[in-house]
Amino acid sequence: MHSMEIATSNLCYLGIDDGYFDVGLKKSSKGGETVLVGVVMCGGRFADIFIDRVSVDGLDGTPSAIRIIARSTALHNIRLTFLDGVTCAGFNVIDPRRVYSVLGVPLAVVFRHQLDLTKIFNALKTHFSDYSYRYEVIEHVYGNSFEIRVGNTKIRLYVLGLSATETLNHLERARRVFVEPYPLRMADRLASLLGRVVMYGRHLQ
User: pTM for this structure?
Assistant: First the structure.
């Protein structure tokens, strides 16, 4: 194997996304929850999966993400972790600044769609007493993201721990033929499936 092939095969990336949840459980007395899933891809191949739980509209998204990243980086040489936005399980938030301050690992938040910050602020203010904290996380990360074009699609990235150039290089390696990084795509698919399993098991109880 050539040295370039060895270097490429050792590149590991982590993608984190949340799973399906029943919107009927939002803010309910039953306290809905779903999964947060981390998928590790090394050299373009599936390497590992890490699963944690997050509460619907709760505030445990950040510690859940920290646990997944800590476990994955202890076992794999993760070059970059990709987050699908900063909200999960409804309006639960993952604060990448807090994650980075605790773990010191490079992070890239991927926004595949434009956010309407005014609409988000009004929704948060209507439904949450701690709306200012949740909105500050969303507004800061999205407001400090930068736009790039991937094929015919525009996405936004917020990066901690790497330069923009380094991040784009890793993104190109990690995304294969898709717009989003492949680990993030895999995390989305698996989290959606596992979230339904969790919800189905809940309904059986």
Answer: 0.88
